[in-house]
Amino acid sequence: MKHLLTIGAAAAAMFGAANAGEWADACTATLEAEGRDASGCQCLEDAIAGDEALIAEFLELGEVADASERYEQGSDEAKSVMDSCTRG
Fold it and tell me: Is residue 30 within 8 Å of residue 10, measured between CB atoms?
């Protein structure tokens, strides 16, 4: 659970204008700087690519400071993306 909250937070917290490749790159840079596992970052980008509503949701979730609260506020779809990208 901690890892999925981290990846969701990393993905959401860093993007103002996310173009192809930027989600994964920013996610990876942030998590690596924090000494955390960034292995799910490309999965996250792939999962949300082209879904403007989901991208917007991740941007909104990035405004929530508490990781647990952020996850709980996510839609079922956002939670599913976080879960699938962090649980092998």
Answer: yes
Q: Give the residues of the chain that fall short of pLDDT 50.
A: 15-17
- 57 HSE (CA, 13 A, CB side): 20
**Cα–Cα dist 57/62, whole Å:** 9
Which alpha helices (H) appear in 1-88, and where do they start and end? 2-13, 22-33, 41-48, 52-61, 67-73, 76-86
Query: Taking a C-beta distance cutoff of 8 angstroms, is the pair 12, 87 a contact?
Result: no
For the chain, the domains span: 2-86
